UniProtKB/TrEMBL annotation:
Pfam families for the chain: Glyco_trans_1_4, Glyco_transf_4
Sorted UniProt keywords: Glycosyltransferase, Transferase
Gene Ontology molecular-function annotations: transferase activity
Domain of life where this protein originates: Bacteria
Extent of Low complexity compositional bias: 401-414, 428-438
InterPro entries in UniProt: Glyco_trans_4-like_N, Glycosyltransferase_grp1
Organism from which the protein derives: Streptomyces cirratus
Region Disordered, residue ranges: 370-457
SUPFAM superfamilies the UniProt entry points to: UDP-Glycosyltransferase/glycogen phosphorylase (SSF53756)
Protein name: Glycosyl transferase
Record field: compositional bias (Pro residues): 375-385, 415-427
Length: 457
């Protein structure tokens, strides 16, 4: 059986990180995960799922000492395939895999916008470095047709780009009236309150300040905002300035795969049940997972952009409405929903399209292309009709969804194989001579993202 290593920049609670965890539950192969930095809550979740997680303790973008450690780890693990996620991990992971002798190297581009990558501005140097690293891989996965088009516009050969959409476990989000009542009670909301919702990292690019202003302009409306990040204090101040601090509920990070460990903290699915309308005000998204989750919960959705549904016919997501970026337009749209009152919609066709089991099978099809003569798992099922999109690229076929066994976990060492590399030592203190070697190339985007809620990535 194929043995795969997934390398990711960090494992705080973010969309790419949680998507990796969800995918590994549906991959029929041995998978280990190595995080360069920040072994946060998602690392704990992966370990609970039985996945081996190793922290490389990388100290920064220019920590070149981490590269030979990574090469040694890959060699000792005797991995057949290396799959990288997020910018820094793609740069170092592709190079380390090649130096370690692994030829099957896949990278997923989770968060590439028109003018930024992973929430940070793009520059010519960042793009050039990305393209240089991309040539070391075997295939590049885009999470949407929109991201695939951006990669091709950068100069990535079309035949190397495969579209594997993000996925969700739709049953987890299906609406339940009892969950709604419980979640509202636990968040201090009455049964009759009109509740607007948002989920995502609290960063400027998500434009949650517009959502706060819009809800503040609607007397009696409440906002449930799940997520954390550097904008949290500014959003709290704004709510106070607008006299709406009692109606703007900044909930912090919430688990998208269930309620909190204490049993009393509603997770993302429960919070969606408590909402009456969902809003995604971000101008730029690579996919829009939070919108798909909201649709799975039967919510009407207002969004500025969402490639997950913008790339498809409107009939796939009839409950979603695209709006402009202005605050007044959002206020008017929310007022309309407030006047109509709470209503729940059936799960639309787009939810079935983005089933996580189907995404896992499409990823296995990509692995088949880079592992000639070796099958990573069961043969894919019959193909379904392809969605409307651009032709001429190496897009993986879309097999019918089916149940797959969970990824086996535990220590990956096999009898007779070299022992895995011991955990790296504690990194040197910032400012020490060994803490930040110079790297004579453009810097990758800054330090790993602050832990944030999974969806809205």
């Amino acid at each position: 059986m194929v043995k795969a290593l997934h390398i990711i920049t960090g494992l705080g609670v973010g969309g790419a990180e949680q998507q990796l965890r969800l995918l590994l539950r549906h991959m029929p192969m041995r998978c280990d995960v190595l995080t360069l930095t920040n072994p946060g809550p998602v690392a704990e979740g992966l370990r609970a799922d039985g996945v081996r997680v190793v922290h490389l303790a990388m100290k920064g973008n220019r920590d070149l000492v981490a590269l030979p450690r990574l090469v040694r780890f890959i060699r000792r693990g005797r991995y057949d395939l290396v799959h990288t996620h997020l910018y820094r991990a793609c740069l170092y992971g592709r190079l380390a895999a090649r130096l370690a002798g692994v030829r099957a190297v896949v990278a997923t581009e989770h968060s590439l916008g028109a003018a930024e990558i992973e929430g940070r501005p793009l520059s010519g140097g960042v793009r050039a470095l990305y393209l240089a690293g991309e040539r070391l891989g075997s295939a590049t996965v885009a999470v949407s047709e929109t991201v695939a088009a951006r990669l091709e516009a950068w100069g990535v050969p079309p035949g190397r780009v495969h579209v594997v959409p993000n996925g969700i476990e739709a049953a987890r989000f299906r609406f339940d009236e009892g969950v709604r009542r419980s979640a509202r009670a636990r968040t201090g909301l009455s049964e009759r309150a009109f509740v607007v919702g948002g989920v995502g990292r609290l960063v400027p690019g998500k434009r949650f300040d517009v959502l706060v202003r819009a809800v503040a302009a609607l007397p009696g409306a409440h906002l449930l905002l799940a997520g954390d990040g550097p904008e949290r204090s500014a959003l709290r101040r704004l709510a106070g300035e607008l006299g709406a601090q009692g109606r703007i509920h900044l909930l912090g990070e919430r688990d998208p795969l269930g309620d909190g460990a204490d049993g009393g903290t509603p997770g993302v699915a429960a919070l969606l049940a408590a909402m009456d309308v969902f809003v995604s005000p971000s101008r730029e998204e690579a996919f829009g997972l939070a919108v798909v989750e909201a649709l799975a919960a039967g919510l009407p959705v207002l969004h500025v952009t969402c490639p997950a549904i913008d790339d498809l016919p409107q009939a796939q997501a009839p409950g979603a409405r695209r709006i402009g970026t202005g605050t007044q337009e959002l206020v008017a749209a929310l007022r309309g929903h407030m006047e109509v009152g709470a209503r729940r919609l059936p799960q639309p066709p787009v939810v079935r399209r983005y089933d996580i089991a189907r995404s896992a099978e499409r990823l296995l099809a990509v692995y088949d292309t880079v592992l000639p003569g070796r099958s990573p798992g069961p043969a894919p099922g019959p193909e379904l009709p392809r969605p409307a999109g651009r032709d001429g690229r190496g897009t993986a076929p879309e097999p019918a969804p089916r149940a797959l066994p969970a990824a086996p976990g535990g220590d990956p060492a096999e009898p007779g194989s070299p022992a895995p590399e011991p955990a790296p030592r504690t990194p040197a203190a910032p400012g020490s001579p060994a803490s930040e070697p110079a790297l004579h190339m453009p810097a990758a985007p800054g330090p790993p993202r602050s832990p944030a809620v999974t969806s809205g990535e």
